[in-house]
């Protein structure tokens, strides 16, 4: 189960706060997956008591965009901690899907990749199996241009990206380099859908390990 | 044989802050009340504001919404997201799929904090959360009896916030706490947050 709350001393109207929370959660707590299971209790709340003073921040008024962006970034940082604690997880994986027709399309593809058991076990096995990533992309149910789709691993140590598939054509992958990247705890997968829409979404997930099965085979309802 | 949970907790210790800057007017606590069986783990948290807050929340879209979800939704609807004073949370038992009795237990948790805050209206001012095993009733007497103790132990320093975060955890290997200071329109504000979760994680809340 995911539970969370945020508390701020900024003065914010109830309408603005609801709007800010929705924006933030769609880009943070609603953009994570450990095991693909939705709980009966998931809740994220935000309280604003205005104790620090100042004018009340209203929807579309001064300070609204700035506060929305602060809350969104903060919520994403909290959400990432949940993924890092994923039961049995050994990898923290960021999935960026770019050039979709809409934000929702991009997020759907990212979510599909993030919940693929075969992608997640490949990540645990440090296998550069871009075929599983592409397969998940293809059944996500949103517009994709196969001949313009590209997949890359983005190393988190600042070294150049490793292109796995470019415009639908497989690259001659340097397996040694792929292994180096996959050995890192943090990994980023970038998928370009090539639709020309320009929308993107980010999702956070982890690998699927032996430990996950051990833990959850012993957690009685 | 090494305990894998302890090993994971040790490796994740770097994600637990040793200090923080917390929002004014919020006092929080985390205590052990006996929902968790080990006799010492923190399992009851209270977050209370000195003054009424505006509030918003998103909830699971699972058809089987737990009693705390139902009660918190009703509270936000009834207050239009205004005049909320507190959050109360227990870990160790989710109070999910517990029928009318579970619904009344969630209401009792909310009301117990309302009373301490001096809130006497029929609409609750306290949001309620529960997490843990599904399909079991809460040990509600232990919880309601210990809410005054949790309320009394509230504070605003880092140790209070960290205890509060610990009281939210279930199978988590580390408490998830964050805080930051930020500026908006020339004013300085603070935000703090707590999250919990390690498994059954694929939220899609609305």
Descriptive notes:
- The complex is a heterodimer of chains A (221) and B (206).
- Helix content of chain A is 36%, strand content 23%.
- Chain A contains 7 helices and 9 strands, in the order E-H-E-E-H-E-H-H-H-E-E-E-H-E-E-H.
- In chain A, the strands form 2 sheets. Chain A has a 7-stranded mixed sheet with strand order 2-9-4-8-5-6-7, sandwiched between helices.
- Chain A is globular and about 60 Å long.
- Chain B has 206 residues and is α+β, with helices and mostly antiparallel strands.
- Chain B has helices at residues 4-11, 67-79, 99-117, 140-152, 158-168; strands at 26-31, 44-59, 84-93, 126-133, 176-184, 187-196.
- In chain B, helix 2 packs across helix 3 and helix 3 packs parallel to helix 4.
- Chain B is globular, with a radius of gyration of 17 Å.
- Classes of the chains: A alpha/beta (221), B alpha+beta (206).
- Chains A and B meet through strand 1, helix 1, strand 2, strand 3 and helix 2 of A and strand 2, helix 2, strand 3, strand 4 and strand 5 of B.
- Strand 3 of chain A pairs antiparallel with strand 2 of chain B.
Based on the model shown, name its key terms.
heterodimer, A: alpha/beta, two-stranded parallel sheet, 9 strands, 23% strand, globular, B: 4-stranded mixed sheet, two-stranded antiparallel ribbon
């Amino acid at each position: 189960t995911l539970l969370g709350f945020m508390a701020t001393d900024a003065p914010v109207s109830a309408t603005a706060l609801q709007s800010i929370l929705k924006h933030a959660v769609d880009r943070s707590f609603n953009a994570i997956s450990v095991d693909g299971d939705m709980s009966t209790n998931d809740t994220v709340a935000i309280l604003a008591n205005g104790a620090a003073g100042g004018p009340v921040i209203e929807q579309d008024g001064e300070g609204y965009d700035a506060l929305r962006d602060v809350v969104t970034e903060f919520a994403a940082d909290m959400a990432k901690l949940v993924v890092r604690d994923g039961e049995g997880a050994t990898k923290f994986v960021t999935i960026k899907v770019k050039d979709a027709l809409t934000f929702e399309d991009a997020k759907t593809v990212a979510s599909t990749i993030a919940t693929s058991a075969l992608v997640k076990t490949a990540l645990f096995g440090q296998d550069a199996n871009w075929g599983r990533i592409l397969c998940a992309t293809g059944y996500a149910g949103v517009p994709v241009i196969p001949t313009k789709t590209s997949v890359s691993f983005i190393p988190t140590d600042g070294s150049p990206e490793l292109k796995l598939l470019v415009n639908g054509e497989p690259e001659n992958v340097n397996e040694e380099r792929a292994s180096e990247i996959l050995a890192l705890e943090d990994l980023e997968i970038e998928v370009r859908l090539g639709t020309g829409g320009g929308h993107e979404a980010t999702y956070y997930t982890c690998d699927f390990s032996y430990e996950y099965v051990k833990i959850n085979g012993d957690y009685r309802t | 044989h090494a305990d894998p949970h302890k090993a994971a907790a040790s490796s994740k210790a770097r994600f637990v802050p040793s200090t923080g800057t917390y929002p004014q007017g919020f006092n929080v606590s985390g205590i052990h009340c006996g929902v968790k069986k080990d006799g010492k783990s923190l399992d009851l948290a209270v977050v209370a504001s000195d003054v009424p807050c505006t509030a918003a929340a998103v909830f699971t879209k699972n058809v089987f919404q737990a009693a705390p979800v139902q009660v918190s939704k009703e509270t936000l609807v009834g207050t239009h997201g205004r005049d909320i004073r507190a959050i109360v949370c227990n870990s160790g038992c989710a109070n999910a799929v517990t029928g009318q009795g579970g619904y009344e237990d969630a209401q009792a948790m909310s009301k117990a904090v309302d009373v301490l805050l001096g809130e006497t209206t029929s609409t609750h001012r306290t949001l309620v959360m529960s997490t843990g095993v599904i399909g079991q009733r809460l040990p509600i007497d232990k919880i309601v009896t210990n809410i005054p103790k949790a309320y009394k132990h509230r504070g605003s320093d880092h140790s209070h916030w960290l205890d509060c975060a610990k009281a939210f955890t279930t199978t988590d290997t580390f408490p998830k706490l964050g805080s930051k200071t930020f500026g908006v329109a020339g004013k300085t504000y603070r935000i703090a947050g707590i999250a919990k979760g390690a498994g059954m994680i694929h939220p899609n809340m609305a």
